[in-house]
């Protein structure tokens, strides 16, 4: 019986062997914010994915908010990532780099005592993971308009660096409570200038980022990630503005010829929350005319079904790819999946990272 997940797909000029996408996942194995050979091994092991979307990579020093995460703003970081892209391409894979700015989800410990930045000086009242462990977030510095313009340029520079590092494209991380998402949300953004107030103004920075990036990267090699129904984390809460905001953003995406739009489904725990969209793929598939990736708790069966139903073109899998480097092959064989060890998701070293056996190795 054929599986939609295993059918090839073209993202404009980029041919993917299947529709099983490796979701971006922070794994905290970088050293000094530089990608390394251990990371190259990890990604190469998973190169049978139709497309790998890398873990978030900071676009600047200001963008850092977690320990041991890789950047893409220095020459050394570009060289570090070249190890990864070379290894993935050698195995016949395709890989995009996720461009990341955490905004207020950082801590002064990362910035020489300076405050993290955000659209408005509103503390998310969460925890930041610093070199000294978890610490309470602080009230961030409200970005000035010149500072916002600089961040847009930082995204552009980072995108150019990603292509120099050998990536097949880039994904703009406008999701999961980080900087761009903070601009979208009216409880996190109370600005009264051109970046606040109306839906158009709160979304403005994303389209400025896309316009800047497409000056250095073909727009059909750019993806965007959104999480329209995120609620209750990193200070992000849905309200009456949420659905109209994301409807506008998604519809505006049709003006671009992007590689894909990458959406996350609502958490099962939040599906009954007022003002939340409980079925993200079903809502946004009719609104978006390009390639759509859906993510969020999918299994082999449900992943095949969402594509067969026409609600998405591809499905991104996160944790299943941690424990199963050969996830595509296991789907093809309808084989049992290995369980990943959550205690080692962010631990240093190879354990729980590159030591999960393939099906062929298990059966040998």
TrEMBL record:
Keywords tagged on the record: Oxidoreductase
CC annotations in GO: cytosol
Keyword Transmembrane assigned: no
Swiss-Prot/TrEMBL cofactor(s): FMN
Xref: InterPro entries: Aldolase_TIM, OxRdtase_FMN_N, Oye-like
SUPFAM superfamilies xrefs: FMN-linked oxidoreductases (SSF51395)
GO molecular function: FMN binding; oxidoreductase activity, acting on the CH-CH group of donors, NAD or NADP as acceptor
Gene3D superfamilies in alphabetical order: Aldolase class I
Every NADH:flavin oxidoreductase/NADH oxidase N-terminal domain range: 5-337
Family named by the database record: Belongs to the NADH:flavin oxidoreductase/NADH oxidase family.
Name this protein carries in UniProt: N-ethylmaleimide reductase
């Amino acid at each position: 019986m054929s599986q939609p997940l295993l059918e090839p797909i073209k993202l404009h000029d980029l041919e993917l062997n299947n529709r099983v996408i490796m979701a971006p996942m922070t794994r905290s194995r970088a050293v000094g914010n530089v990608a390394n050979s251990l990371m190259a091994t990890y990604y190469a092991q998973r190169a049978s994915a139709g497309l790998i979307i890398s873990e978030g990579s900071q676009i600047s020093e200001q963008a850092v908010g977690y320990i041991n995460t890789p950047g893409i703003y220095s020459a050394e970081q570009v060289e570090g990532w070249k190890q990864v892209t070379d290894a993935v391409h050698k195995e016949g894979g395709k890989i995009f780099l996720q461009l990341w700015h955490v905004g207020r989800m950082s801590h002064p410990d990362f910035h020489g005592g300076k405050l993290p930045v955000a659209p408005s000086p509103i503390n998310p009242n969460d925890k930041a993971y610093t070199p000294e462990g978890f610490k309470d977030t602080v009230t961030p510095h409200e970005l000035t308009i010149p500072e916002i313009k600089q961040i847009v340029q930082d995204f552009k520079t980072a995108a150019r660096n990603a292509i120099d590092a050998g990536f097949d494209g880039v994904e703009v991380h406008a999701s999961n409570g980080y900087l761009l998402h903070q601009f979208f949300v009216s409880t996190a953004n109370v600005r009264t200038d051109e970046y606040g107030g109306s839906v158009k103004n709160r979304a403005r920075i994303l389209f400025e980022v896309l316009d800047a990036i497409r000056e250095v990267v073909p727009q059909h090699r750019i993806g965007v990630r959104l999480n329209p129904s995120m609620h209750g984390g990193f200070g992000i809460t849905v309200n009456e503005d949420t659905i109209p905001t994301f409807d506008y953003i998604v519809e505006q995406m049709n003006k671009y010829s992007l590689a894909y739009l990458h959406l996350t489904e609502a958490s099962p725990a939040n599906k009954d929350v007022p003002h939340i969209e409980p079925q993200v793929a079903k809502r946004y598939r009719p609104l978006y005319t390009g390639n759509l990736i859906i993510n969020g708790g999918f299994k082999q069966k449900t992943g095949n079904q969402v594509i067969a139903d026409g609600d998405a073109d591809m499905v991104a899998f996160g944790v299943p790819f941690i424990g199963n480097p050969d996830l595509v092959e296991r789907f093809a064989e309808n084989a049992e999946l290995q369980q990943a060890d959550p205690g080692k998701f962010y631990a240093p070293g190879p354990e729980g990272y590159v030591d999960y056996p393939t099906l062929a190795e298990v059966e040998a």
